[in-house]
Structures are given as structure tokens and as C-alpha cells.
Design a protein that fits this description.
CATH superfamily of chain A: Chorismate synthase AroC
Largest interface: A-B, 118 and 118 residues
CATH class of chain A: Alpha Beta
CATH architecture of chain A: 4-Layer Sandwich
Order of helices and strands of chain A: EEEHEEEEHHHEEHHEHEHEEEEEEEH
Distance between the termini of chain A: 38 Å
Number of helices of chain A: 9
Structural class of chain A: alpha+beta
Oligomer: homotetramer
Strand order of the largest sheet of chain A: 1-2-3-7-4
CATH topology of chain A: Chorismate synthase, AroC fold
Radius of gyration of chain A: 21 Å
Number of domains of chain A: 1
Number of strands of chain A: 18
């Protein structure tokens, strides 16, 4: 089961790194929503590789073909399906990897789970390439949200030890969000960005890789969206975010820092603002009891360093049952964090739209149900 | 939707802090499993309040009555239902809270979501008391896992700024796990425990509260358990953990620390040990691509400080639409972390059993399906 | 997995015929809905046994205790849980049945599925008694629907070969529906009812049993409710109806009769009525493409004869692996159809409310989502 | 939500009659299963149109392209995706249909549900053409079942009033099943087939259409497969079958006929046969309490006459809000029943494989879970 299964939005991602195509089916999109394919492509390009020295030089043409679900560019209620062709399929020799699982990759665990039948080429279904169809789904959901004043924006919060300034938890200006979404290297402080790029290049030159953190903000989500317990916003966002390859941590608001705070420091006092209930601070990251409180939703996502490094590593031969060294060939991202920024936004968009769609079903008292 | 919905294990938790009862239905337990009710009670007592100066003095009798699902103490395949009576229901006056949402509680968000119909007494369905039926479900799943050599143990990793030594990611001795599970204040180093208790008492005396971190280890889970993407172990564990009230962060293995590491530091090299593939280190926390690799599963869970504090706080009057001070009366845990330790184990047990049950369906090649 | 899992309404039924209690958790009910417990009891009494010579003389007190989900009789958004105590538990000797599966019961199939661990007493989880909590859930959903002008009413369409007149597919007067719902033996034509009762008594005197058909109508459901394919109204209603013990057939509108018709006979022509699109006839039973068309929803449900009969039957001894005769003792309904009428209504109510709640999520174009 | 969502097998069908493509994603297939694409094509050809005078003359090339999920023709554990191009897309003028809903089609109900945004061309997502991807999914599941001795075969039981002989409920010879699956017009008695074809041609010549019944048998399913209540075999099969366009009734074993029988006639006595528990008769259609008893699973599916007929019908103009006549142009199947036979088999295969995969999780007592 590879799909994201919200209550309303069902996303079924398919494909392997070297299968004829990768793609996605999105079921549950509301009908009557315009999909701007050019804007979607702009969003996808933020994830695409080969745009700079900082990422893998493999050039993919991540241009999705919409197979169904649209009529004249508008959702028609039927599932939306899209595919992206893999142009460079099964050409390499992956027999070496079949026998030698790459450290920190899913090669070994997939081998055990699927009894040796998994697709090893390029990481198969576990390849980071599968985040492209996730971005197709999330990009479309993001457009639907944007039309209702809900904006999702993320930036690189840290790479290695270098940190960008965090989002203002009380909200950011629209121009700031727009500019970080348009930036080729999405940081809030350009100085931090320069140091980060230096850290990536240093890792690359050393045949190594480096991890980082992405911070994301959902602005404009009204209060009362979400549900208690395992259907809560934090649970659902975390489930979607940990589905992104290389994610090892997720925190909301103060997150792990909250564990060091006193209640009197952490509790966000309520106050009125223009007839609306707001909070004085936003340590909670906009979520209380799994439900939005109307403040910006804030969370941070930790990415491990790219597992594929040029340095020789120790692996085992599964057939000979002994340790053997492994040299991973090919070119890889020394740091996937810059390309992961729109992927985090995409995952957040799926969950936010799903929760928003659910809002009308909490209480029928105000609605006309005849 | 308050339930934990695994693929096999469906947990439906019901009840409010002051409803006649709270309880749980667990559907999907395999038949033929002995349930040791005394051992279950021992597990539940680890969560129960009123055992020391460190927790609320409200005394609850968390003795579940099993309503169905067992025949002579053995699961029969039918859903297992259990209830715990609330002895002290709707006695207080909660009209004050209905109009004045408590900061950092779900009072306001539930008010918006349910159009003012939510149960405000004692936090209603959002009360920490609802973790008792979660522990009933998780405690039973834990027994089924234990019987198959899978042990789940957690400890207090930090309270305020005081830290316990972490679990050895390569595994802990059985005696260590047993002793921390039996300890009234579950830490690995008693000295750290003393300092933590002092921090809790200091917060209590100041009319304040303090947060902390729980670390949990699942030992003995075989390799190959889990699934890719949103059905992966990390996604499913995170969804269950963020369903616990006050959780604000979840990380696996090195977690946020991985964001500061190089690939060559973080990647766990494979080696052979007694004919079994293992890793030299366990920075991954036992999970690669959402699937277990046979090493201990390790994760850390951040809890915010208890929102209910004695100090006067600023709230709003929802009816008068203006700021008003709020004094929360009653006695509350100055730190919920010690009592949260078995709750984390319980949530982990649900997910681990669910994933384990799924293992036989990945490949039919070895099985006899006629 | 014993639950009915709609998209919004999750019903988890628990209990065995002789467990301490049976009951139900209903998650997803909208908040702010009054639940009239007296009216619910009236509904449950229609299912209760022991009311006449025609049903089993076992007297059960089917008085549910609401454990959670209500505040002052109004739904609060939290799951509603209810239990019914089994007063007469595990008193009998069922060892005979453990070894000798009753023909046409689930004894043997449960034995295989659960490896011999199933609860055999009184049929365990497969007992018709489990329809009582289903009626609790469905009765509450029915009240919510009724408040919005949606009425669900069923009657005995046939017992043995005796047939009642069918519902008028274009709709019935409110007084007719009310009167059939209030009748102790729910038929539209009293003469047919007399003959049916005679058929039941004849079967009873012969130590035998007899089957029948229930016809059900959902009036007032607006057009546009439902979904395509497996989430359609017919699929979802059928899944809920076949969950009722003894159901062997379900048909909508003309059903199997449609197979004998020409398109020109079967197609319902559209026409306008008071500015509303209606159909001239209702062969479709109010559903096209899985979605309601605004006409009454009509379906028929076939029940097999009660499997428990007094006559000696041939079974096998599972331990001795040989044929042995079986005499079922105790008193049983010679025909369960009269008591099944409200159960059919209850199952329909779950599905109808679930589909209705979903309606607001199809298109956001009209709604205010900020 | 258009998908079939079993516990293990998730099928997401996408496409509209005139979208660029239709297709399917199948998640949850066990790894290591050979997929014979030629055999799959043979299966699909049984559904394909244009093969005789009896069906629509529109010629489609239903040749699926497998996009993912296979490595060298063997399932790899990743979702299997397939698409079929629509060669003849959006060429026609459907504005007439947008305003004039066709009687007995989903035009009007989709219009209401999707607020006028539905795809009207060729019936959009509600077109019978969407059964092609269903057959891709079901055909693959059928191969996996067949390899384990489980055969699913269906035939035309009736068209108009003409009836084929029914399957022998105790089982059919392998040669009979093979021959009916290979027949261009799948009946058991060729004489009945001739009369049926005459009935179809008569309807066609009259500009009319005719309905029918498909009977299906699942042979070789072991006892103990299925679950109680709404997850039972009957509920799950019915949900999948009613997802097929034009299905209006489903019955198992004796079905509606059971309503006329006495318990002593209907109950199937148990007996031993070669150390195996079997029944003397099979009125139950192989299912008791939602669980298979090891006898053949038998069910019948009623199809309404094709709604598209050449005769002028009465419709309404949605824009002008008045009655207007409608003449449906184009060529349509005068009877879809012959082409529906493999579709019924496909739906049954999804459910049967899903239930079979679940079998290993009922009890862990026999398995090795370490």
C-alpha cells in the first residue's frame, strides 16, 4: 500500500525509477476546480533535478501528461490521473545492487519484504523520483487551497549546521512567501543560503552528502479544521511527511524545544483581534487537539544526508553471505534538501485540502441538507 | 473520526472525561491469543494518576471491564471491547470553561469544530484520560508481540533540560528493559531521575508545568515489516504517536540530529552476524524505506508542558468577545511525561502488531494458500 | 473486521451472544444532533424478541446504556458508544455445538477461520442478537435523517410464498409509512399479514422455519447523493444489508425483474414537476450510476429461513470426523423476517446518512470555505 | 471515490469515455507473481466490443500498457498501473446530452452531484468503457488465484426471458468451466444461446434493448475465507458487483428463492468426504456468516437492459426546464450481458484474492512470526 489515503483525497502513486512511467491517481478532488497546468509545471520544476551544480546531473523531463479527470482544464469529479514517462529505463546494470544492498537505502528491507522480487533498478518504487507524482497531486491541491486564501510555503531551515532564519510564527508577508517560493535556492536570508551552498559543494567534493531541515507554513487555514486523535492534523501531516524518502523527524510549533519549556512560557494566551479569537504567540504551531486554531500552521521536517555517496562503503553480498565493499556509481544529489522543499509543500497540501473538505461534515446545524 | 485505523487492527476509542464511561473497541486481533488481565492491569497502573506527589491527586480506578472478544481469557476473533467507568462525572461547574477556553488546550478549537456542542467538562473527548483505553488496546497488543519475542520499552529521555542516558541503539539487555518497565519513575540513570523529579516539583511549587521527551525502543521486530510511503512504519508510528495529547515532535534514529550529519557518518554499514544481515551502527533507528531492517526500532517523542497551570492566564470570553483572565482550578499533573511512558509503548504496540500481521501478505510464494 | 466503515460514519459492533455485553461505537455523527432515547427504544422494541407467539420466547431486555457521545441528549462530536448487557451469559452447555456445527449456521466456517477459538455459545459474534447494536446505531442515524425530511420505512414483502402489496415506487403517503412503522406485524395489507402469520405458525408446529423478503423505501433523499462505482449507493447499501445475518439477496428497483424487460419498458422518462426534474416511473429504484435521482430509493432484501429448526438434522463430529445427527434444543424464531424489518431500516440509515454527509464535499464552488 | 478498496487490494480506476486514456492502479498485489500478458489479453477480448452483430460496432483497441509494478513480467510489490488509450476522444458533439439527460443513465445524477462540471462525453466516468480497466485488475488477480487452484467462471444465465441451465451448485467439471470461458457466447446449453441471440437481435431491430442475468461460480476457495458482517464475502462481493454499470440485483446460493423455502429444505447438511467436511447440497452458495465453507461460491447478477436505445424517449431540457424528446444517436449494445460476463469474473477475482490474502492474519497460532 503506497498510497496516501485521506478521508476525501486518495492518492495512489505508482511507478519505479526505471519502469515505463511513474504517475499518480488522485481521487476525491472537488469538481469545478480550474487546474492551471503551466503553474503546475512551475511548481514541478522546483523539484526537478539538473538545474545546478548542487543536484544530480541526471536530466529528467518531468512533464506530466494528464490522462483523465479534467474537462477543458477543470476538474470533473472523476479521478485525476497523470503520468510521467521514464525515458532512461532499465539501461544500467543493477545486478551488483541486487546482491549488494546500499547502506541507508531500502534495498535490503525491500529485498526481505518482497522475497527478492523487488525492482532494484534505481531504487525501484523507493526512489526519490516518486516524489514527482506526489508533487503533481500536491501541486493541484495547492492551487485549490490558494484559491481559498490558503497558502503553503516552505524554505530550507538548515543544511548541515547552517541555519536560515525561521519563519515568523505569527505570519509572514505575502511578498516574503511569494519570493521564497520563486527562489531557485529557497531561503529567507541570502547569506545563509550562500553558506549552505558552500556546505553542499564541500560535501560533494569529498564524495559525501549532507542533510538538512525544511520548515513549512500553512497560512490562512481557518480555525476548526482537523479532528481529534489519529485523524488530527499533526497525525495526518506527519504520516504524509514521513512518506517522503529520507525524512527522519517532524515537529510542530516549538516541537522538541517545547520539551524544555515551562507551561507559562509555552501556552499561547488568547486575545481578540478585529472580532476574531487569536493567540498572542504561536508556540503551538497553529494546532490544538489535532485541530487548527486559525494561526499559521508551522512545522519542521528533518532530512537525513543522501544515502548515495561516492565513498566506498561496507555492504554484504546477499548470495555469498559475507561482507564486501560497495562503490556506488552514477551521479547523485549531494543534498536533497533544496529539491525537497516543494515536496514538503505538496504533502502538506494533500492533508490540508483533505481536512478542509471534511469541515462541512462536523455539524449539520448550519447547513441546508435538503 | 477518533479511531486508530490500521490495516488489520482497528481501534475505536470512545468517551469523554465526564461521560458515564470511557472505553475502546479493538477489531482485528488474531484469534487464539491469551490475554493476561493481571499483567494488563500492571501495565495500566503505570499510566494511572495519584501514585506520587508528581502527578495529579485525582484518584481514578482505571480497572477495565472486558465486555467481549474473550472466551476464557483467550481472543476469539470477535472485536474486543472494554470500558472503564468514570466515577466522578459532570459534578463540577464547567460553564466558566465553556466561555473561557484554556490556553494550549483544545477548548477553543473543539468549540469551533463542533459548533459549540462539544463536551467541555474536563476536556471532554480531548482529555488525557482517553489515553487509558488506548493503553488497554496497546497493552493487549503488547502481550501478543511479547509472546513472539518483540519487546517495546520506553523511558523518560528528558524533562525540562535534564537528560537521561539514551538507549543503546544497538540494543539493550533484557534486564535493563525489564527494570525500566517496572520502575515507578522510568529512567535508565537514577541520578537523572532525581534531578527530573526536582524539576517537576519546582514547577509544581511555582504553579507551573514542564515538558519532556520519551524515548522508545521496539526490540525483536524482524526485518521486512512495514511498507513504502504513507503506510511505512515511520508514517504509521508518527500518526499514532501524534494522536497522544501534548505530543509536538517525533523523530526516528538520529532524527533532527541527522540533518547535521554527513552521509558517510550517518549511513549504517551492513555486516554479517551469525548468518544474519545486521548493521554496524543504527543511526537509521531500524527503519529504511518505511520497512524494518531487523535492528531495534528507536524513536523519540516530544511532549509540551502540561497546559493546565495554576498561574493566572489570559483568555477570552467567547460570549463577550473580550479578553478576560482565567484561573484554572483543580489539581493537575505538573508534568505528564512520566505517565506518558506506557502510552507511547501502547501506541507503538498497535502499529507494530498491525505491521507484523501484514507481513504474511507481501508474497505468497512461500506459503500454502490452498 | 466486523465494522461498517462508511466514509464518515464508522460503526464498530462488538459482542457475542453470551459475552458480558454487546454494543456499538458510532464515530462520525455530526455534532449538535438531538437523540431522542425514548423514540430510539420504540425503534429497538420493533426488533426485540418475545413479543408474540411468532418469535422466540427468550426475553431480552434490549435497553441500551449510552456510555459517551452525548451531552444533555445532544451529540457532541465525540464517538457515541452504547452497550446492552447480556443477562443470560454462558449458562448453557455448548460443548455439543463446538463439536457439531449446525447446518446453515456459521459454526463451521468460524471454526475454520478462527482455528477453533471462536465463541460457540449462542452463535457467538455471528448471533442475530448482534443486530440490536446495529439498530442502536441505525436508529440514531434515522433520527438525524428524519429531521431533514428523509424517512426510511420497510415492510414484510413476502413470507414463504405469501406476498404483501409492494410499495408504490413513486412514493407512499406519510400516513402509510407511519402506520407500517408502528404496526406490530408490519405489512401494508392486513390480509396478507394474516396469511403470513399462519405460514409462520405452520412452520413452527412442524419444527421448521420459513424465509421471506423485506422491502424498504428511503423517501426524501435529494438528488445527487452517492458516488460512482464501488462507493455508489447500491454498493454501499448492499454491503450493509448483506452484513445482516440470513440475507441472501438484494435488488434495487425492478431488480431481477429488470433482466426480463426491454429498455423501452425499463427506462424512466424524465419530466418536470413544480420546477423539479422527476421521472415518470421509478423502475430504477431512485439510483442511477450509484447516485440518487431524487425519486424514492427502493430495494428488496431476501432472507433465508431461520437455520435453527427443531427437526433432527445431519451434522458431523469435528473431533471424530464422522457424520452424526444433531438436535438443536432451545427456542428459536420460526421466521426472523418480522424482526428483521427495523434491522433493514437501520442498515439503510447508516448508508444514507453517510452519503448525505458526503454531499457537501463534491464541489466547493457554492460554499464558503474561508 | 471510484476505487474498490479491499483490505489488501486497492483498485483505483480512472478515466472517462473520451479522456486521453482510461486505466487502473492496483495496489497490494503480492510480489513474485507471474503475469501472463497474453492470457490477460485473451481475457480482455471477452469484454471487447465489435466482435459480433450483437454488440456495438464501435471498435476499441483495448490493449493495456503496463506502466509499472512488473519486473520481467513478475509483480515486484510496487503498485501495478496500466492504461488504455482512448483513440476517439472528444470528437463528437455532446452539448445536446449536457442539456438533455438520457433516461436510465447517470447524466442527470452526475449533473447534480458535480454541479454541472461532470464530463458528459460518452457518459464520462460512468461509461461502461470503464469496465475495461476493471478487467485488467481482475484478470491479473484471477491469474494469481488460478495458480492456487481457485477458478472463477461465469456464464449468461438469462437474457430476456430465455434461460441457460444453471451451474451445478455442487461443482462443475474443469472442462465445462474451460469451455464456457472460451466460448464467444458463454452459455452452458447452446440451444439457449441461440434463443438468446435471437432475442437480442429482435430488440436491436426494434431499436430497443434487453437485460439479463449472469451466474458466476468461484471453485476451489478453501473454507474459512471471509469475515463477519460488512466485511463478509457476500457484502464485499455485492459491493464490487453493484459497482458494475447496469447491475440491479445480486443473490447468493438460492438467493430470492430462499425466501420461499423451509429451513428443512434450505439447510445444507454436513457430511465427511475424504476426511474433509462438505455439505450434501449447496443452497447457501458456499458462504455461511460471510465466510466460505469450502463449497463452490455461487451468485447471480441481474443486469438491466442497456439504457441507450434508438427509440425516441422523453427527457427534459435542464436549461429550459421543460420536457423535450431525446433521440440517442450512435451505435450501442442492444444487450450488454454477453460482454459483462468477464466483468463479473473480474469483480469476483478482486474480492476473492483480497479475502484470501487476509486469511493468514486471522490466527497466528500456527505461524512462525519471528
Amino acid at each position: 500500500m503506497a498510497s496516501y489515503l485521506g478521508k476525501h483525497i486518495h492518492v495512489s502513486i505508482f511507478g519505479q525509477s526505471h519502469s515505463p512511467a511513474i504517475g499518480v491517481t488522485v481521487d476525491g478532488l472537488p469538481a469545478g476546480e480550474q487546474v492551471d497546468l503551466e503553474q503546475l509545471q512551475t511548481f514541478l520544476n522546483r523539484r526537478a533535478p539538473g538545474r545546478s551544480l548542487l543536484s544530480t546531473s541526471r536530466k529528467e523531463d518531468d512533464r506530466p501528461e494528464i490522462l483523465s479527470g479534467l474537462v477543458d482544464g477543470v476538474t470533473c469529479g472523476a479521478p485525476l490521473a497523470a503520468l510521467i514517462r521514464n525515458t532512461n529505463t532499465r539501461s544500467g546494470d543493477y545486478d551488483n545492487l541486487r546482491d549488494h544492498p546500499r547502506p541507508a537505502h531500502a534495498d535490503y528491507t525491500a529485498h526481505v519484504k518482497y522475497g527478492g522480487h523487488q525492482d532494484v533498478a534505481g531504487g525501484g518504487h523507493f526512489s526519490g523520483r516518486l516524489t514527482a507524482p506526489l508533487c503533481v497531486a500536491g501541486g493541484i491541491c495547492g492551487q485549490i487551497l490558494e484559491r481559498r486564501g490558503i497558502t503553503i510555503a516552505a524554505h530550507i531551515a538548515a543544511i548541515g549546521g547552517v541555519e536560515d532564519r525561521p519563519f515568523n510564527p505569527m505570519g509572514e508577508l505575502r511578498t516574503v512567501l511569494d519570493s521564497v517560493k520563486a527562489a531557485p535556492f529557497p531561503v529567507l536570508e541570502e547569506q545563509a543560503g550562500e553558506k549552505m551552498r558552500a556546505a553542499i559543494l564541500a560535501a560533494k567534493e569529498a564524495g559525501d552528502s549532507v542533510g538538512g531541515v525544511v520548515e513549512c507554513m500553512i497560512s490562512g487555514l481557518p480555525a476548526g479544521v482537523g479532528s481529534p486523535m489519529a485523524q488530527g492534523l499533526e497525525s495526518q501531516l506527519a504520516a504524509a511527511l514521513f512518506a517522503i524518502p529520507a525524512v527522519k523527524g517532524v515537529e510542530f510549533g516549538e516541537g522538541f524545544q517545547a520539551a524544555r519549556m515551562l507551561g507559562s512560557e509555552h501556552n499561547d494566551p488568547f486575545r481578540m483581534e478585529n472580532g476574531r479569537v487569536v493567540t498572542e504567540s504561536n508556540h503551538a504551531g497553529g494546532i490544538l487537539g489535532g485541530i487548527s486554531n486559525g494561526m499559521p500552521i508551522l512545522f519542521r521536517v528533518a532530512f537525513k544526508p543522501t544515502p548515495s555517496i561516492a565513498k566506498v562503503q561496507q555492504s554484504v553480498s546477499l548470495s555469498r553471505q559475507q561482507e564486501e565493499p560497495l562503490q556506488i556509481v552514477g551521479r547523485h544529489d549531494p543534498c536533497i534538501v533544496p529539491r525537497a522543499v516543494p515536496v514538503v509543500e505538496a504533502a502538506a497540501a494533500l492533508v490540508a485540502l483533505d481536512a478542509l473538505l471534511d469541515r462541512n461534515t462536523d455539524s449539520l446545524s448550519g447547513g441546508d441538507y435538503r
